[in-house]
Structure formats: structure tokens, C-alpha cells
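Human: Here is a favour to ask of a fellow structure person. Comparing notes only helps if you start from a blank page. I am asking you to supply a protein in sequence and C-alpha cell form. Write it directly below this note and I will take it from there.

Assistant:
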Amino acid sequence: MTLRADTPAPPAARIRRFSRAERWVHRTTAVLMGVCVLTAAVLYIPQLAILVGRRELVVRIHECAGVALPVPVLLGLASRAFRTDLRFLNRFGPHDRMWLRAALVRDKRRSSRPAGKFNAGQKVYAAWIAGATLVMLGTGLLMWFTHLAPLMWRTSATFVHDWLALTIGVVLAGHVGMALGDPEARKGLRTGTVSREWAKREHPLWRG
């Protein structure tokens, strides 16, 4: 008897990729980031501002979501699996440099893009978004608590905050686009498991 193409893979063919705690950190961070992006759009795009109205409420929601953004990650540090994956994300090896070179020259061969549990692109994205979030938090606090710094600092903070917000929006759009193109990766974040075939193909150096 042959299995139909849409028959789910048996449990033995799937391996654990993310713990429950890791998935909740990702989900809550994604929700908070989404709220920040949407409220920022309402605040800076006149057509949306007119459509939504209630600017003061939107500002408060934006501020609260921004301040809360690091909280899921801080709570996630209580999880051993989360701390282990942070170490994986923070380590660059020769295979990561090979992956980046292949990406830069648009070499799509699997053999030219070796990856462990996280590929080099994911590591670069994680480091960049973490740094950008801290800068946004710092500049946002200077804009919120106007008595904390002189006018020149607040003006500079506003400039950095606004342009970095635009950059984050573009990078997040790319991140979402990559996720939409990989259903198995999305399933890993939703259920915590991925197929062995996918892991072997996309992350051959990972021993899951």
C-alpha cells in the first residue's frame, strides 16, 4: 500500500526544534513588534492617522508595546532550551561564512550553504533585530520622558528612532516573506517539530 502525498509524516519522522517556551517568546515578541509597527504607521502616515483618529491613545499603545518588547526575551531566559538556542545564535563558525558568501553571490546549491540549527542569515537577523530593538527602546524613552535629556539629544533621538523604525519595517517585511516561503519552518514555530527530511536538507550540520 502506498501513502498518499498529503498523508502526515509519522511521529518518528519528525524531530523537536523548539520548546513551548521558545515558541511563546517568539509569538509574544511578534505580537508586540506588530503592534509597534502598526501604531507607528498610524502615527506617521497622515491617511491612516485621519482614518483611525484618537492619536493620544495610539501613542500610549505604541509606548507600552515598545517598553514591553524586551520582556518576553527576558522571561525566556528562565528556559534552558531558550538559553541554549541563544548560544547557537551567538556563535559564528567557518560554515556560517561559507553560507553568507553563497548568499551574496546568489549560489542556490544546498552544498554551498551549510547550516547548523540556525543558518548564518538567521544569526545575522537575530543580532541585528536585537540591537535595533535596544536602540529603539533607548531613543523612545528619550522622546517619552522629555525631561531626561537636553533638546539636542531629544532631536537626535527622534531622527534615529524614525529612520530606524522605517528600516525595521523593511527588514521585518523580508523576514515575513522568507517565512511565507518555507511552510515547514513555520510549522516548526507553530508545533515545535520539523520533518527530518527538511532538517537534513536545510540544516545539515544540525544534530536535532
